[in-house]
Amino acid sequence: MPLRWHEYEPDSSVRTKPKKKTKKPPLYKVILLNDDYTTMDFVVFILETVFHKPHEEAVHIMLHVHRKGMGVCGVYTREIAETKVKMVHELARKNNFPLRCVMERE
Ligand code: TYC
After folding, report:
1. Is residue 35 in contact with ligand 1, taking CB distance under 6 Å?
2. Which residues does the chain have with pLDDT short of 50?
3. CATH code at 40?
């Protein structure tokens, strides 16, 4: 007579924990750097347009960078972070500001 289902030995080949298959990609902080020439308004504009920050938060981040020398404006996957850095440099160059930003792996 065949075994009923609850009479089987536990089978070590049967996975009990779910296999971890959704690996999270590494994340990168995009960091804005202070300088003496870029206007506060332009930095706020960058934070609103490139980083989609609401106005109040954009002002807060800009003032943090102004006072502390640098500040995180967002955390993204590598390609998105690279694109944001390029956008900031491109917009700064077009508007004759020396504004710089860098990315750093979290
Ligand atoms: N320090 C600049 C000024 O006094 C303002 C500024 C803030 C510039 C943040 C760059 O990332 C920056 N006009």
Report:
1. yes
2. none
3. 3.30.1390.10
